[in-house]
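For reproducibility, we list the full input for the zinc ion complex.
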Amino acid sequence: MNAEKTKQYYDHLTDEDICHCAYCQNYVRKIRSAYPELAGFLDRMGVDIEKPFEAIPVGPVNEMMLYSGVQYVIIGSADDFRQVSIENADIFITDSHPMTDLKEDHFVIEISPVLLKQTGEDSDDM
Ligand SMILES: [Zn+2]
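The corresponding predicted structure, in tokenized form, follows.
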């Protein structure tokens, strides 16, 4: 993995690059405060937790929103990445993801599962 190049990749992503559906926007708003250790872990790899590549929502569970997986792009080689578990979420390499359109060496990790409170404001969109 290349934390410096990964950080550059995330620095160039804007709000326009993040999915605008209610599930993803809810994720973006809640994830950092709900999973601070996970956010710190991703930060050290150069990943901005508020810029997911892909979120896979399952639906509401006991007034929480369940995501079976949330994916992030990492720049560099996957060789030095090892699977970990943080705050009850597993973080692992996945080959099952949309096209990234990136030419440089990269891979995609998935965080699973993620459970977040639903927002009040945008609940109509869910
Ligand atoms: Zn979305």
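The longest strand covers residues 64-75. Strands lie at 54-61, 64-75, 84-86, 89-94, 106-112, 114-117. Both points were considered when choosing residues for closer inspection.
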